[in-house]
């Protein structure tokens, strides 16, 4: 079977890509490993999973009708509601008929002679497509640390990103262990604590988290938002992170201690990510960063009753340089009698035993173990697929070749014609409002394919020069900030053996959008548009 385009994944990316391709008259097939749409919102069903972008902005904006028809219940809705939204979208645009579920793409090889991609599926079948588009997401390759003895564990264990789809995990009366306290751990820990007989949290690095202060939406607010959506969307598209929030023009150290304290207190009371917007240099300068980092540490000391537990929860990295986290009663959870916090930085995990988990200090008996240990971010999901470009070069080899992974605009790769990544490495997406960032990539790719078709151009490929320049620019922008200093999935430091590299464009979503538009307006500057595999214009 031959399609114009094959897309992997039926999450936010794959669904809109399919819609965009169809609207432009291309034939397309989406392959999805799960048995339903939703992507991360299909897989992440752990207790407490919810959105941490405000829902009124965390949706598609391409259809005014869709914006008007869907109404979010609250500021940060739980996973089932977001999954319902994506199912609503799939139904509204009749997307399912072009999606093949429970089908994993194992390999995609570029057939240079016939200028097409050969796509191999897990069931052994194969299809071909002119364009190969990845919508695999940035956080879909689970990181399950290789602890000795996991296969001997007599209890049950789960990773937050692969939570059982059709059964409830019952923690009642159980001794539960959670390893990890990133966004997934921080969301699940307070909920599991309410149900479990006892919860032991194994923490390696303390994290800063901010109260989400979730609340149901006032119908008047929803009405006003819907009436003004087009203006809001315009603001989102031109902003740094894809939200209609005006950035501060002040440095944190321009204000006196008293004024700063008041600014931080107000943002803390509002909840959500407002704290990150209080000053313009929090992730740029150590001195400014220390003011907000210390503010959050003071809140932890205030909230946690036992000083020794509070001490263990105090983070020391620069706030904001790991992905900021929103919580609902996270620090308060450590005041519960049935919750114990173990510092595995001090006493590392040695092994999983049949009865539980052993650190260098003690053994903890557990019935259920939850890995909230995150993901091999950005490159991980792509490298799980055997992707081969020209001359049989694999993506793995290409990205291992230089000192750094490099891409052009986070969308394309030299050596891989007609292959597009939605929210790939070196795009700003993971620091932006994800659905909006996805829409921008999908629209750009859709426009590009129409451009090629209208001009009879069979292939497009990023040039090595453009790719190298983009990658260098990304690193220069990042190096002017504090971000690369943190050990996180942003830098690859969370995966043992992964080369350290900061793979996010930090120039801002609005700026990036203009750069991409400019590239297109200049006839796809930095790309080779070829009329045959060997001819480069
Ligand atoms: P994460 O932020 O990478 O956190 C993983 C946690 O596991 C960290 O606490 C880490 O400790 C710990 N860990 C990893 N390996 C370990 C080991 N061998 N021993 C002990 N501890 C270990 O992962 P995540 O919480 O799943 O979040 C990943 C990203 O997904 C987030 O940053 C966010 O972008 C996204 N997310 C979003 C939402 C949402 O609300 N929209 C919800 C969940 C996730 P160290 O810090 O020491 O490495």
Provide an overview of this structure.
- The protein is an alpha/beta fold and 537 residues long.
- Among the domains are: 2-141 and 377-459 and 508-530, FAD/NAD(P)-binding domain; 247-321, no CATH class.
- It is 32% helix and 17% strand.
- Helix 1 (12-23) links the parallel strand 1 (2-8) and strand 2 (28-31).
- Helix 14 (434-455) packs parallel to helix 16.
- NADP nicotinamide-adenine-dinucleotide phosphate (NAP) is lined by residues 50-52, 139, 145, 160, 179-185, 187, 204-205, 323, 344, 349, 372-375, 489, 494.
Supply database-style keywords.
5-stranded parallel sheet; FAD/NAD(P)-binding domain; 8-stranded mixed sheet; 537 residues
Low-confidence stretches: 533-537
What's the CATH H-level homologous superfamily of one domain?
FAD/NAD(P)-binding domain
Oligomer: single chain
| Count of extended strands | 20
The helix/strand class is: alpha/beta
**Which small compounds were modeled alongside the protein?**
NADP nicotinamide-adenine-dinucleotide phosphate
Characterize the biggest β-sheet.
8 strands, mixed
Mean pLDDT: 96
Our Rg estimate from Cα atoms comes to 23 Å
Query: Which class of one domain in CATH terms?
Result: Alpha Beta
At CATH level 2, the architecture of one domain is 3-Layer(bba) Sandwich
Task: Name the helicity range.
Answer: 25-40%
Between the first and last Cα atoms, what is the distance in angstroms? Answer: 31 Å
Summed up, the helix count is 16
What is the 3D form?
Answer: globular
Strand content: 15-25%
CATH topology descriptor of one domain: FAD/NAD(P)-binding domain
């Amino acid at each position: 079977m031959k399609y114009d385009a094959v897309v992997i994944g039926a999450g936010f990316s794959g669904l809109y890509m399919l819609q965009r391709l169809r609207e432009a008259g291309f034939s397309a097939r989406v392959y999805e490993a799960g048995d339903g749409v939703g992507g991360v919102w299909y897989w992440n069903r752990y207790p407490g999973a919810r959105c941490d972008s405000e829902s009124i902005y965390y949706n598609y904006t391409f259809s005014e009708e869709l914006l008007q028809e869907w109404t979010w219940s609250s500021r940060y809705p739980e996973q089932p509601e977001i999954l319902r939204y994506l199912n609503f979208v799939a139904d509204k645009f009749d997307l399912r008929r072009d999606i093949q579920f429970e089908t994993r793409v194992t390999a995609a090889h570029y057939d240079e002679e016939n200028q097409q991609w050969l796509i191999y599926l897990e069931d052994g079948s194969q299809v071909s497509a002119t364009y190969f588009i990845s919508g695999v997401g940035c956080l879909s390759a689970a990181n399950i640390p290789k602890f000795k003895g996991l296969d001997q564990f007599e209890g049950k264990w789960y990773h937050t990103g692969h939570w059982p789809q059709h059964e409830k995990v019952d923690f009642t009366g159980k001794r539960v262990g959670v390893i990890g306290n990133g966004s997934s751990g921080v969301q699940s820990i307070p909920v599991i604590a309410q149900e479990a007989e006892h919860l032991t949290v194994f923490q390696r690095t303390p994290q800063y988290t901010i109260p989400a202060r979730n609340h149901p939406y006032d119908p008047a607010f929803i009405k006003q938002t819907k009436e003004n959506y087009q203006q809001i969307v315009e603001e989102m598209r031109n902003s740094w992170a894809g939200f209609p929030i005006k950035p501060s023009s002040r440095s944190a150290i321009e204000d006196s201690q008293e004024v700063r304290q008041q600014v931080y207190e107000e943002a803390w009371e509002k909840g959500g990510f407002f704290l990150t917007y209080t000053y313009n240099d929090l992730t740029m300068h150590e001195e400014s960063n220390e003011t907000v980092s210390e503010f959050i540490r003071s809140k932890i000391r205030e909230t946690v009753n036992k000083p020794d537990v509070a001490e263990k929860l105090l983070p020391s990295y620069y706030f904001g340089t790991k992905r900021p986290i929103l919580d609902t009663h996270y620090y308060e959870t450590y005041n519960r009698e049935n919750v114990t916090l173990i510092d595995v930085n001090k006493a590392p995990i040695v092994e999983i035993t049949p009865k539980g988990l052993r650190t260098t200090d003690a053994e903890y008996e557990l019935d259920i173990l939850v890995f909230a240990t995150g993901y091999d971010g950005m490159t991980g999901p792509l490298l799980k697929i055997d992707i081969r470009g020209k001359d049989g070069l694999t993506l793995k080899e290409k990205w291992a070749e230089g000192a750094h992974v490099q891409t052009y605009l986070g969308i394309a790769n030299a050596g891989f014609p007609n292959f597009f990544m939605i929210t790939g490495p070196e795009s700003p997406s993971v620091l932006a409002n994800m659905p909006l960032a996805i829409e921008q990539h999908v629209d750009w790719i859709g426009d590009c394919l129409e451009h090629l078709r209208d001009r009879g151009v069979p292939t497009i490929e990023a040039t090595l020069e453009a790719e190298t320049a983009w990658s260098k620019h990304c690193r220069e922008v990042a190096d002017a900030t504090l971000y690369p200093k943190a050990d996180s999935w942003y830098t690859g430091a969370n995966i043992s053996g992964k080369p350290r590299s900061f793979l996010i464009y930090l120039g801002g979503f609005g700026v990036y959008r203009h750069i991409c538009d400019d590239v297109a307006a200049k006839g796809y500057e930095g790309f080779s548009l070829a009329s045959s595999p060997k001819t480069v214009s």
